[in-house]
Design brief:
The structure holds 2 protein chains of 2 kinds. Chain A is built from 4 helices and no strands. The longest helix of chain A has about 35 residues, at about 75-105. In chain A, α1 runs antiparallel to α2 and α3 (about 75-105) runs antiparallel to α4 (about 115-140). Chain A is mainly alpha-helical. Chain B is mostly helical. Chain B is built from 5 helices and no strands. Chain B has helices spanning about 5-10, 20-45, 50-60, 60-90, 95-125. In chain B, α4 (about 60-90) packs antiparallel against α5. The radius of gyration of chain B is 20 Å and the shape is elongated. In chain B, about 20% of the residues are buried. Classes of the chains: A mainly alpha, B mainly alpha. The interface of A and B includes residues 41, 52, 59, 96 and 106 of A.
Chain lengths: ~140, ~130
């Protein structure tokens, strides 16, 4: 048998296929899941560690993530913190919706092309709506 | 890929027969997250988050502390399973694979231990 070419592509890759909703939410499930795993859990552990550390460490956490109190580095990271928190909110809702989509696919339902595309698009609508609602509540209702 | 021979199994090629447990654990921990994360999120949204005393008092309650301990164990477990799948797809061999396997074995245990210890301190350590 002839030796296979080393540089040969293994399969048609991202630039070959025409993008569809199912492909998009599939990769978004992975991206949001890993984002939540690293940034989300990292931030959550920092938060609980700051509470366990006492009032001063909790105020330091708030300064770096949200208020920017004290200026300097905290002023910049607080700006970044808001972007990250909004991003994590969206990532949570997106991962939640595509996770539920996986439960449906696991039982063997929702594979018809039109239904698959429709539910994929609805996960995107759900995550954007959920993010908007949570932040509208956070920024206005209190 | 292993061809099912004895030497192939010794070399660790082919299926390890752990796939079904991984698949089910991923779904079961997802169901747990479906309860625990909304509990945390809704509880926090109802609190004044800038106020240390309020947040600390809430988290020191038995039900909230129990939920947070379960949440740290469950989310870290779920995250570890998912990150493993991502790494299996993108890191294929050599020192890199050994390094990431060490990381996903050690880091999740350390992360969960830190979260649980923090909650226990908040719940039992006084103000």
């Amino acid at each position: 048998m002839a030796q296979a070419h080393r540089d040969r592509p293994l399969s048609p890759h991202l630039q070959i296929w025409r993008w569809g909703p199912a492909m998009l939410v599939s990769i978004l499930h992975r991206v949001t899941g890993n984002g939540l795993a690293f940034a989300g859990l990292g931030l959550l552990l920092w938060w609980v560690g700051a509470i366990a550390g006492g009032e001063a460490s909790y105020q330091t956490f708030l300064a770096y993530v949200w208020t920017g109190t004290g200026g300097g580095l905290a002023g910049w990271t607080a700006l970044l913190g808001k972007v990250v928190l909004i991003g994590l909110t969206w990532a949570f809702f997106q991962h939640l919706a595509t996770g539920l989509r996986h439960f449906v696919l696991d039982i063997g339902a929702g594979y018809e092309l039109s239904a698959n595309a429709r539910w994929s698009v609805l996960t995107l609508v759900f995550s954007l709506a959920g993010t908007a609602l949570v932040w509208a509540y956070l920024l206005t209702a209190r | 890929m292993g061809n099912g021979t004895s030497i192939g199994r010794v070399r660790g090629l082919g299926s390890s027969h752990h796939g079904t447990r991984h698949f089910l654990a991923s779904r079961l921990s997802a169901a747990g997250n479906l309860v625990l994360i909304p509990y945390l999120a809704i509880s926090l949204l109802l609190l004044p988050l800038h106020d240390y005393a309020t947040v600390h008092t809430w988290l020191a309650q038995p039900v909230a502390a129990t939920a947070l301990v379960l949440l740290f164990i469950n989310t870290v477990w779920h995250a570890r399973l998912g990150v493993q799948v991502m790494l299996e797809d993108y890191v294929h061999g050599g020192a890199g694979k050994i390094a990431v396997w060490l990381l996903i074995t050690v880091v999740p245990v350390a992360a969960a231990a830190f979260g649980v210890i923090c909650v226990i301190r908040i719940a039992l350590g006084g103000v």
